[in-house]
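Section 5.1 Outputs to date
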Amino acid sequence: MNSRERVMAAINHETTDRVAIDFGAMRSTGIMAIAYNKLKKHLGFEHLPKTKVYDVMQQLAEPDMEVIDYLGGDVVQVHRLAPALGAKVTEWRDDILPDGSECLVPESFRPVLLPDGDRVIMENKREIARMPASGLYYEMTYFPLTDAQTTSDVDKLDLPVISEEELSLLRDKARQYRAETDKAILGEFGGNMLESGQFHFGWAEFLARMYIDTKLIEHYLDRLVEFHLENLRLYIEAVGDDIDIIQMGDDLGTQHGLQMHPDMYRQIIKPRHRKIYQYVHDHSDLKVFLHSCGSIVKVIPDLIEIGVDILNPVQTSARGMDPVVLKENFGKDITFWGGGCDTQEVLPFGTVEDVKRDVQERLKIFTRDSGYVFTQIHNILADVAPQKIVAMYKMAKEFELAPT
């Protein structure tokens, strides 16, 4: 079984020869560049080119194929070219990470270093994101619709259609992966509704407006749906025949529950999610992958109903997200992609043996009856020791599947 066959069989709940594995192929279950540099050194892969930081906001590394293969990775990502505030990933320049190690960043990514050591991203002479001097990633500081009062204010927001340049580059990358690798190809799209609202209005502001200014928010979301559907049409026409999975995102949960009452999700967000995911199923054979952090157990049946095939990152540390409960209640109807190691406590603070034990216990649950792709819960953070990363993926690669 090659990598693509293994991943697609797992998604289709068919028997696989071993656990399907994702290392770094999704931008919310990836690896920070500092940790990746340490991993390459630990593995003796220092001959590889400088690490590319393809997501500058989260400071995520684009893994090299040699490292993906070493760790048993079965998936590669075709990522959008402007994942972070206009920093187009087409040309690269040298830069230094917060720990002093070398990397490459997009040529157009030019943060300003302030006297206090903070770094800020500027756009049109306005600060839009900041990394504190002691920080390791950027956080947004500007939300263009915070003060929006009318539909006219909302309509002034620029929502750019994906360019021909980007479509051509995405098409070339997808075809290259298809021709030169046997990996399953995950195409990043986005399609965010709730998260887009929080990026445009502000996190708390958008949630409040959903309740107190519902008509304005629904106008905004309807415009967002039109924008996503147009981009989706262009995206599928460009790469739909060469990728296997299309990745959407919307963090619906927190550590303790949904960001909103389930009825509010079903009233405002769900119908619009349905339009986007249904478009994919109506116009392609792609599998719909949704990244949604936190405690989302109350709406997993809704997500299955509207066409989500794959759920990531499976944050089992959040309330109600017990692996046994998830697998027993939903395992026949959805593929879990993640949940393979706890990234809040075990991976950063446990020992190598703790990591091995955690992975093994989770795999015993999630791999029953297939429908599972291994990766850790969310990104591998900067201070995670390479020995634990290797142990985590070695355990997954060597895990003996129960007979079916």
